[in-house]
Design a protein that fits this description.
By secondary structure, the protein is an alpha/beta fold. It folds into 3 domains: 16-164, 3-Layer(aba) Sandwich (Rossmann fold), CATH 3.40.50; 219-353, ANL, N-terminal domain (Rossmann fold, 3-Layer(aba) Sandwich), CATH 3.40.50; 360-459, ANL, C-terminal domain (GMP Synthetase, Chain A, domain 3). Helix content is 28%, strand content 28%. α1 crosses α2 (66-78) and α11 (403-412) crosses α12. InterPro entries: AMP-bd_C_sf, AMP-dep_synth/lig_dom, ANL_N_sf.
């Protein structure tokens, strides 16, 4: 049973640590262990003093425990150090990013390469410290504080994205303006990592700024997600997990569910409402842009609604562009998202224009092929990709089958099944754009943020597979 806390008015990240010590009951919860606001202040102050004395300037944070992560995040910026968030906990990935940082702050649960300079924060956090009278937290100038995040990208190669904290502060204010009244005293449960922009905002910084407690650790399995359902809980999740829910109705519903990181199929959204008691709020955006819009899929054609403070338009190629205080309010930011503007507030997404390839001088939309595949009764999901074989480009498709598709495959065999599949696709797609290779699998591989990685999909077509 989580202890209810009373959120106050929204507090900016710039003055967050100046809140009175009696302000909150709990910041984070780990089973029966409760982390109070005074304890959080004491931990942040102690660590910030320690870091301020070091000569190193660039501090990366990689923690499994969201409370330890939050302490490290606030301590680094109050120590006037540079903040880096690796997107991956894997030792080899951390080693690959090591040129970007001087010291890695971590907890006991994180595997660390021996070559890195590190500080294990777990011993500090487990000390029960009292806030000293010397603890003074200055007001931060957020526009001067940089945060480096990493996106995986479709190729899987990390790409550094630098944002200033005033941009995150602006987005937190918008999230609270939209959903604050509904969420009230709720506790945050999550299945997504705080190392990425979505988890960073929704499961750590937004709750901190609004006085809501959060779980220290992720819920990793659908069974855990369903067991934690409560009208006093909010679920921060992604399509990667929401598509795997069991067919058992929870005794009480979540008050709200959020999903981001990738498209949530309409069937999965409805399934979520049926078995978790809430229709997910899907949030559309990226590390570069921050949030752009949101929706609840009442119907498969439900459009997206832009955030109040975000302006939208399209360029001559009908690609979405935005003016946003989460990027730069003074100029337009161009995306690669093909878009249909319904009016000044609502829009439909039509796929990524950077998923257009050329074969024999013909422009081919991989998104369109995926859409047509998923219209077929035999196909549940599809991921289409270009493959280069013997210096020629060809199209391949990774697919998951419906029960009807599985039955048909077993009945006619692979060779005949692929012929029938291609025959059906010819209703809409030119012969040159029809996939030459197919891989039926149980589930399309996704990373922890619900994104498909090109390298994982390509590996499915290696000869030894």
């Amino acid at each position: 049973m989580h202890t209810a806390i009373s959120p106050s008015a929204l507090t900016s990240l710039s003055t967050l640590m100046q809140r009175p010590t009696h302000h909150l009951n709990n910041v984070a919860i780990n089973g029966t262990t409760l982390h109070s606001w005074p304890q959080f202040q004491a931990h942040v102050f102690s660590l910030s003093q320690q870091l301020a004395l070091t000569k190193q300037q660039r501090f990366a944070i990689c923690c499994k425990d969201s409370y330890i992560f939050a302490v490290a995040f606030m301590a680094v910026i109050h120590a006037n150090k540079k903040l880096i968030l690796p997107s991956n906990h894997q030792p080899a990935a951390l080693a690959e990013l090591s040129p970007h940082f001087d010291v890695l702050l971590h907890d006991t649960d994180t595997q660390i390469p021996a070559s890195l300079v590190t500080i294990n924060l777990s011993p500090l956090i487990h000390q029960h410290q009292a806030l000293t009278s010397k603890a003074v937290f200055p007001t931060l100038i957020l526009a001067d504080i940089e945060l480096t995040l990493f996106t995986s990208g479709s190729s899987g190669t990390p790409k550094a994205i630098i944002k200033t904290l005033d941009l995150l502060d602006n987005e937190i204010a918008q999230l609270e303006a939209i959903w604050g009244q509904q969420l009230q005293h709720n506790h945050i449960c999550s299945t997504v990592s705080h190392q990425h922009i979505y988890g960073l905002l929704f499961r750590v910084l937004w709750p901190l700024c609004c006085g809501r407690s959060f779980d220290c650790f992720n819920l990793d399995y659908p069974e855990q997600v369903q067991a934690q359902a409560s009208t006093s809980n909010i679920l921060i999740s992604s399509p990667a997990l929401l598509k795997r829910l069991n067919n058992s109705v929870t005794s009480t519903p979540y008050n709200a569910i959020f999903s981001s990181g990738g498209p949530l199929p309409f069937a999965a959204a409805q399934h979520c409402q049926q078995f978790l008691g809430a229709l997910p709020f899907e949030v559309f955006g990226s590390t570069e842009t921050g949030g752009i819009g949101y929706r609840q899929q009442q119907q498969s054609t439900t459009p997206w609604l832009r955030f109040d403070v975000v302006k939208i338009a399209v360029n001559v190629e009908q690609c979405l562009k935005i003016r946003s205080p989460f990027v730069d309010p003074n100029q337009w930011y161009q995306t690669c998202d093909h878009c249909l503007l319904i009016d000044d507030h609502y829009f439909e997404l039509k796929g990524r224009t950077d998923r257009i390839i050329k074969i024999e001088e013909k422009r081919i939309s991989l998104t369109e092929i995926e859409r047509r595949l998923c219209q077929l009764a035999w196909i549940d999901e599809a991921a289409v990709l270009p493959l280069e074989r013997q210096q020629r480009l060809q199209i391949a498709a990774v697919i998951t089958l419906t029960a009807q598709g599985t039955e048909q495959l077993e009945r006619v065999g692979k060779g005949q099944f692929w012929l029938l599949l291609r025959q059906q696709l010819r209703q809409w797609i030119e012969p040159i754009a029809i996939p030459r290779r197919f891989r039926p699998i149980a589930a399309i591989p996704l990373n922890s943020q619900g994104k498909r990685l090109m390298c994982d999909l390509e590996n499915l077509f290696n000869d030894h597979n």
